[in-house]
Amino acid sequence: MIYLLLGKGFEEIEAVAPMDILRRAKMEAQYVGVGGLVVEGAHGINIQADITVDQMDLENMDMVIIPGGLDGVNNVEASPAAMAAVRYAIDNDKYIAAICAAPTILGKRGWLDGVKATCYPGMESDMGGAVMQKDARFVVDGKFITGQAPAAAVDFGLAIVETLIDSSMKKTIMHFMVY
């Protein structure tokens, strides 16, 4: 199962584009509401989560995805249950994907030390010992996938599909999206 965490103030395109792509690829993925089932994004768009953070089944988790949006990232960080899921992914060699401001959650804790990564321009100081790839729209390094900003959300989602399935599925999705 892939869980996409929604903290109030998340960046909408960074939550919707990857989820749409994952579902096109027929991957099991759920929106996880931090603080409730209906979560308001940074631009006033509400998303109905599939489950709340307390309902996650961590033992069956393959990946956790964290969209950006500074308020959304702060709300994920303020949630003990959400951070327990991220910590579980780290401790159990699961995939973690984070875009925009969200990679700073990992960087500030030293989880990206020595890992190639990207983030929203100007937030590099919160990336710890990550090996920054400043101009990259997304970076895949081991179990980490990081994305740069809202405009990279589709590429970020496609990178997740390529990493978890294969490049053939990525190309199929790109074809049908006329990408």
List keywords for this structure.
11 strands; 7-stranded mixed β-sheet; 179 residues; two-stranded antiparallel ribbon; alpha/beta; globular; 34% helix
Written overview of the protein:
The structure is a single chain. Strand 10 and strand 11 (144-147) form a beta hairpin. Helix 1 runs parallel beside helix 5 (153-164) and helix 5 packs antiparallel against helix 6 (167-176). The protein has a seven-stranded mixed β-sheet with strand order 5-2-1-6-7-11-10, sandwiched between helices. A two-stranded antiparallel ribbon has the order 3-4. Strands 8-9 form a two-stranded parallel ribbon. The chain starts with a strand and ends with a helix. The protein contains six helices and eleven strands. By secondary structure, the chain is an alpha/beta fold. It is 34% helix and 23% strand. The mean pLDDT is 98.
Strand runs, count: 11
Q: Give the fraction of residues assigned to helices.
A: 25-40%
Low-confidence stretches: none
Strand order of the largest sheet: 5-2-1-6-7-11-10
Shape estimate: globular
What percentage of amino acids are in beta strands? 15-25%
What's the end-to-end separation, in Å? Answer: 26 Å
> What about the largest sheet?
7 strands, mixed
Q: What Rg, in angstroms, do the CA atoms define?
A: 15 Å
Separate helix tally:
6
Structural class: alpha/beta
* Secondary-structure element string: EHEEEEEHHEHEEEEHH
